[in-house]
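Discrete fold record:
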Amino acid sequence: MQITKQYVKQLVLEELTKADVKKLIDDAIEKKEKELHRKLPKALEKELEKALKSKNIKSDIGEITKKVIKKLYKDLSFHHPYIIDRIKV
């Protein structure tokens, strides 16, 4: 008896039920998720370290911070001047 590719496919299809296929897929997905949860924080930390060492990023963060502080100061000075008066120098 010669075993052909078609015969093997037919045997596999008969043997695997929907529940088996679902279990196999769920196990594979769960394994990949665990691997991703292990590797993702390290990869993110590595990329953030690279980005924060860049002078362009540092200057961008500085400019954004300045804008926020200016807007906060304007809002406080116009709408809540008593808060600024309470600041002790």
